[in-house]
Amino acid sequence: MELPRPLAPWAEYLDLFPRDLALPLGPLIQRLDLVIGTLHAGSRANKGEPDGFDGIARRGTYERLLLSEWLLAEEVPDEFLRRSAMGEHVFLQLAQREPVGTKTSVALFDGGPNQWGAPRIAQMAALIVLARRAGAAGSRFFWGILQTPDGTLFSDPFSEVSAVTVAHFLQSRTPRDATPAELDSWRQRLHAESSDDFWVIGGKEIADWQNLRGASLLQIDDVYEPEGRRIQIQVPVGVRKRAPVLLELPEDAVCARLLRDPFHTATAAPAKVPSGVAPASNLVFAVGGTKVLARSQRKGVLSYPIPNSPNAPSGKPKRFQSVYGNTVIAAGRIAKSTVIVSVLDTKPAFRLEALGTRSDGIIEGEYPWDDDGTDYRALSDDAGLSLCFEYPVPLPRDPSKPTKIWFLLPTGSLFCLSAENGERKAHLKASGVQAVVPLRDNRFAHISWRGSDTRVILSPNSEGQGAAQILPHTGPGAFFGFGGSLTDERFGFFVVEGENSEWYVNPNAGTLLAGGQHKLIAPRGMSVVGITVVDYVDHRPRPALVLLSGDRHVLTLLGSGINRPLPRSASPILHVTVSTFSPQIGYVTERGDVFVYSILQGAVIYRLSTDGTE
Questions:
Q1: 3-state secondary structure string across 29-64
Q2: pLDDT tens digit string along 25-76?
Q3: CA-CA distance, 238 to 343, in Å (whole number)?
Q4: Listed residue (444, 450, 440, 490) closest to 471, CA to CA
Q5: What CA–CA distance (Å, rounded) separates 479 from 14?
Q6: Is 90 domain-assigned?
Q7: Higher-confidence residue: 473 or 553?
Q8: Strand order, beta sheet including 405-408
Q9: Helix pair 118-136, 252-260: axis angle to 10 deg
Q10: N or C, which end of the chain has less CB nearby within 10 Å?
Q11: Spatial separation of the C-alpha atoms in residues 98 and 103, rounded to whole Å
Q12: Do 145 and 241 belong together in one domain?
């Protein structure tokens, strides 16, 4: 990996990480290296037996004076005398043998709760700095965890800081604070009194220990700032204390990956479930992005918990069963309830149910729909599952006011269920709707057709007023997605299809995108299934189409300078859902397996497989 020249001294260690982690970590390592300083050989250096010559020096005995200097004594004696007076003579420098093991560097890291989170990233940087520093001085480097004096001591050949040892370092957290007795145990084990370089890396609690004599303390403390990402570093010298140094941490997304899985080695272990628990529809990301929902095979809903890391276990889905046995057409999470909307077989009405924990304001029951000439009872179990969401969201929540619940049907009909004045009614709010998304600040947006050749995006607010824009591109496709900082506060983050496989990201919000570039082209043979962002190391998120290959086995993120295939699926992918709440993609295979892929972590964080039983 090619790194910027200032990071070249640490290339051996930074090469362990993906480039999009190595570059943000580099500046932290640079600053920390300046704080720690170089390793000096100590008083025992250059005290061994002579062993030939090793370069030249300005001082020495005249029996080691260079022959060129003696030539001056014969040819230009005045210049010889001048050089002697000015100390400019050059001598051969003796090389001296040094006993093996006389130079060592030892680092003990506090793995307790005071060093979790941001300080742990600084500890990782310190591990790299101290390892490289010892290597540059020709010293052997040892490191361990302060709380485990009887545990593993990483030394040669592991002291080069490999992916294995860094992974061990990250997994060595402990809920217990370190004690002075553990430091004494380490001293006895290491004979640290005779070490050239002995470091303890921890928080301010360790600074008060009385047995730190002979050790250097690298004090790392978290800085609690609402808007900042900084840590405080301090290296006391004897009884004096240097002024603390504040170091900037990388972006939150980078920090999360550094702590959870910096080498992309982890992948979620599959949870095994019977075939009867496999989803019977596409996935729906619930508002908040912590759960995905799907229609079950038994007229109910499955709720899958999304872990925050591939290292976390994949939990089994929770089943919510409707007692009415109607076709579920929409599902979501409102307050603490799992809410489903089903269509009745016997009358033109929808049924609203709150399953699990009940929440005030959700009025369950039948909601007759407006007669628009469409018989929604024709919707079958093969129809896609839609997200239902609350709008407007009362802040603060008033239990006495009925909740209005919105959902979009596969027919393009946008409905609102309301129970004002005790009358339950399903109001048809718009037709020809292609996509809908709930937004922050009590808004939502939807992309709709007006006539046969005009497409608009609408964004009503809680007062009934809203914004609208005509979209210049009239292709059939449209998707909302997660846009991060590219999200427009009124219209969200979306992509619409134009002509010749051209797709346009937020066409009327070009100032949000780098250089105003918002046209993406989908390759032939691949289907566009959504839009998202990929956050690069320059901290400029870039739009990326989510594509499904022609054989339906591979998903790919494609954008300007982005071409990232996701892990190949063994079974053809049946349904794909791109989250609008977080950088995640959920998909279901023909076998009934469920996957959730984190774009941020570059790994599958949830995986559920069927075992063939009922």
A1: HHHHHHHHCCCCCCCCCCCCCEEEEEEEECCCCHHH
A2: 999 999 999 888 887 654 444 556 777 887 888 888 888 899 899 998 899 9
A3: 76
A4: 450
A5: 38
A6: yes
A7: 553
A8: 365-368, 349-355, 337-343, 327-334, 386-390, 405-408, 414-418, 425-430
A9: 70
A10: C
A11: 9
A12: yes
| Residues 121 and 192 occupy one common structural domain | yes
Residue 591 counted as domain residue: no
Question: Does 302 fall in a domain?
Answer: no
Cα–chain-centroid distance for residue 71?
68
Domain that holds residue 247: 100-260
Give the highest mean pLDDT range of 317-331, 393-407, 599-613: 317-331
Q: State yes or no: pLDDT of 464 exceeds 70.
A: no
- How high does pLDDT run on average in the chain? 83
- Residue 198, domain member (yes or no): yes
Q: Model's pTM, two decimal places?
A: 0.63
CB atoms < 10 A from the CB of 597, how many? 23
Phi/psi at 384 (nearest 5 deg)?
A: -65, 155
Do 170 and 74 share a structural domain? no
For residue 466 the two structure tokens come to 């809203």
State yes or no: pLDDT of 529 exceeds 60: yes
Query: Do 174 and 230 share a structural domain?
Result: yes
Nearest Cα residue to 603 out of 294, 262, 279: 262
CATH number of 249's domain: 3.40.50
Q: Which amino acid is at 93?
A: Q
